């Protein structure tokens, strides 16, 4: 299912033209409203020090401001879906991580003076969005225009494309907290695909101390330093703050799109006799192969991809088994302890 479509993003040029027009409009509005005079008044006169201090405090903690999460999410999606050209990664890059950087703002710190466990989910949203938007941008555009591309066919009438709007949803998130992140401490989120089945795409994210680990190489343009020594240093686990697993589902209306369809349309799956969507072969035993990073593009076969998928699926199945816990809810059949407010 390897795709040979062009890597050029057809929307990128129109996005840049619209952005240029918006910037010109903002500049003209600022000129007409004499915004520079207002800035000068803000920075001078009585109480200017307090205003400047407040502005600096808000700037260094912008991550906790209202709608900041929306800005971060929209940035990740717009960057990969509308600005950058589609990637040209070969199937041997499918399990490679995307690295996102962040820090613990003062608004995320709890009474124990470290990043609150509840705030990890917001960071995970952004990190996963970078990974999925980057890897399946081409397939996402095809699914959005499914009436034209026929990426997904209607199961009730295979001669016609499925109808409905394309969207991506989250099913489950599991976090394992190991070490605390201190206020304003910087960290990196290493997100990668580990497996998929007929419904779910499983993504693993490690929160890692910033600068503690460097990749052996970069798949596209250089994004920073690399490490020279192969293998895994013994102190790597000490640099990991948290590990998380998330399940993603692709939808076209109410129809679930097989994750292999999205990955294959983005050129990330090697050829497989019979096709990925007809038989996922989830009961097969993993094949003994080397590490993913040791493979060359010409050596990366369907068997090797399937081996890596099945190894990740062994961990993913433990998490999906917890979905049955919703059946334990009994609505307080034997009573309830009480009702409390400000929860």
Write the layout of secondary structure elements.
Layout: H1 12-32, H2 35-43, H3 48-60, H4 68-83, E1 98-103, H5 120-135, H6 137-144, H7 146-149, E2 153-154, E3 157-161, E4 166-177, E5 186-196, E6 201-209, E7 240-252, E8 255-257, H8 259-265, H9 302-320
Antiparallel strand pairs: 1-5, 2-3, 4-7, 5-6, 6-7, 7-8
Helix pairs in contact: 4-5, 6-8
Give me a quick take on this structure:
It comes from Hypoxylon rubiginosum. With 343 residues, this protein is an alpha+beta fold.
Keywords:
343 residues, alpha+beta, 6-stranded antiparallel beta sheet, 9 helices, 8 strands, globular, disordered N terminus
Describe this entry's structure for a reader.
- It is a single chain.
- 33% of the residues lie in helices and 18% in strands.
- It is built from nine helices and eight strands.
- Helix 4 packs parallel to helix 5 and helix 6 crosses helix 8 (259-265).
- The longest helix has 21 residues, at 12-32.
- The radius of gyration is 24 Å and the shape is globular.
Helix content: 25-40%
What is the global morphology? globular
Q: How many β-strands, per DSSP?
A: 8
Q: How do the helices and strands follow one another from N- to C-terminus? A: HHHHEHHHEEEEEEEHH
> How many helices in DSSP terms?
9
Task: Give start-end ranges of low-pLDDT stretches.
Answer: 1-5, 277-295
Taken as a percent bin, the fraction of beta residues is 15-25%
The separation of the N and C termini measures 49 Å
How would you sum up the major sheet? 6 strands, antiparallel
Radius of gyration equals 24 Å
User: Would you tell me the structural class of the helices and strands?
Assistant: alpha+beta
Question: What is the arithmetic mean of pLDDT?
Answer: 83
Organism: Hypoxylon rubiginosum
Protein name: Capsule polysaccharide biosynthesis protein
């Amino acid at each position: 299912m390897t795709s040979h479509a062009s890597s050029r993003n057809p929307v990128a040029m129109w996005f840049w033209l619209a952005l240029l027009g918006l910037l010109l409009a903002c500049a003209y509005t600022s000129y007409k409203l004499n915004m520079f005079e207002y800035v000068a008044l803000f920075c001078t006169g009585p109480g200017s020090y307090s205003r400047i201090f407040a502005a600096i405090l808000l700037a260094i903690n912008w991550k906790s401001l209202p709608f900041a999460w929306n800005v971060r999410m929209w940035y990740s999606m717009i960057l990969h879906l509308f600005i950058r050209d589609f990637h040209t990664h070969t199937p041997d890059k499918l399990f490679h991580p995307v690295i996102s950087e962040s820090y613990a703002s003062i608004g995320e710190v709890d009474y124990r003076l470290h990043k609150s466990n509840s705030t990890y989910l917001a960071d995970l949203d952004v990190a996963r969005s970078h990974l999925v938007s980057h890897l399946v941008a081409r397939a996402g555009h095809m699914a959005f225009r499914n009436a034209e591309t026929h990426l997904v066919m209607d199961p009730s009438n295979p001669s016609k494309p499925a109808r409905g709007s394309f969207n991506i949803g989250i099913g489950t998130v599991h976090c394992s907290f190991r070490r605390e992140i201190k206020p304003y401490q910087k960290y990196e989120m290493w997100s990668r695909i580990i497996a998929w089945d007929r419904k779910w795409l499983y993504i693993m994210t490690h929160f890692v101390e910033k600068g503690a680990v460097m990749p052996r190489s970069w798949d596209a343009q250089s994004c920073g330093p690399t490490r020279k020594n192969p293998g895994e240093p013994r102190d790597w686990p000490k640099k990991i703050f948290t590990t998380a697993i998330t399940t993603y589902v692709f939808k076209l209306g109410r129809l679930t799109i097989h994750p292999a369809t999205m990955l294959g349309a983005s050129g990330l799956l090697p050829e497989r006799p019979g096709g990925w969507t007809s038989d996922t072969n989830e009961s097969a035993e993993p094949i003994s192969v080397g590490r993913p990073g040791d493979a060359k593009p010409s050596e990366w076969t369907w068997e090797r991809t399937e081996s890596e998928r099945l190894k990740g699926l062994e961990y993913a199945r433990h998490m999906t088994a917890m979905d049955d816990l919703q059946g334990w809810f009994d609505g307080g059949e034997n009573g309830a302890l009480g009702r409390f407010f400000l929860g």
